[in-house]
Automatic annotation (TrEMBL):
InterPro entries: AAA+_ATPase (IPR003593), ABC_transporter-like_ATP-bd (IPR003439), ABC_transporter-like_CS (IPR017871), ABC_transpr_LolD-like (IPR015854), MacB-like_ATP-bd (IPR017911), P-loop_NTPase (IPR027417). This is Lipoprotein-releasing system ATP-binding protein. One of its GO terms (cellular component) is membrane protein complex. It comes from Sulfitobacter marinus. One of its GO terms (biological process) is lipoprotein localization to outer membrane. The keyword Lipoprotein applies. GO terms for molecular function: ATP binding; ATP hydrolysis activity; transmembrane transporter activity. It holds the Pfam family ABC_tran. Belongs to the ABC transporter superfamily. Macrolide exporter (TC 3.A.1.122) family.
Amino acid sequence: MNDPVLRLSGISKAYNAGLPSEVSVLRGIDLTVAPGEVVALVAPSGAGKSTLLHIAGLLDTPDSGTVEIAGTDMTGQSDRKRTGVRRRDVGFIYQFHHLLPEFSAVENIVLPQLANGVSKAAAQTRALHLLDQVGIAHRASHRPAELSGGEQQRVAFCRALANEPRLLLADEPTGNLDPATSDQVFAALMELVRGTGLSAVIATHNLELAARMDRQIRLDAGQLVPL
Ligand SMILES: Nc1ncnc2c1ncn2[C@@H]1O[C@H](COP(=O)(O)OP(=O)(O)OP(=O)(O)O)[C@@H](O)[C@H]1O
């Protein structure tokens, strides 16, 4: 029950392995994230944080090492099993919202729940509750193009949490916003995360935002070091 939500052990990854263009990105990454823990991942551009988050979220596989999600070793599991765990247990947030433009805010949060077998009524209720928690319930019927950048990201946060994941992985979730908006939107994200008690790894270049998390780590030359 007290298993870490995420455990990465000895993760290595190179692109174009064996070719003159080989790029060794991750070199023996060990990371354990406890239930409810929020970890800041700070890395210079190109250091490999997207690669690391994709491996942790089962969107990519390492060359070596193991990924455990909530106590289950995902090494060698079938694509079907990996997809199931990813859909159920992992939420993603990116720098750009990636909302579906033809659907309203609330529909963007309802759809992933329907794909997960939740009834339409329950999905709608949860979506509205999440929008309310990030302060934009009054924008529920707006399409993404009718929302500000900060509002779009708030909707993306709700969508990531729609299926009650155990682990949130966020790649520069406010990196696309001006500093004042970034600050407010980040505060909304932290409130949402703390309110649900889920674990998170949040990549950011912003050291002030990183300081608001439980632990700060830096990706440096393919390895994790304390900030
Ligand atoms: N498919 C690929 N083939 C070859 N090299 C790649 C590939 N994907 C990423 N890389 C290289 O691996 C390194 C890490 O990429 P990654 O996208 O993980 O970095 P990042 O830290 O997320 O960068 P940024 O903050 O700029 O998004 C970079 O040098 C990149 O050029």
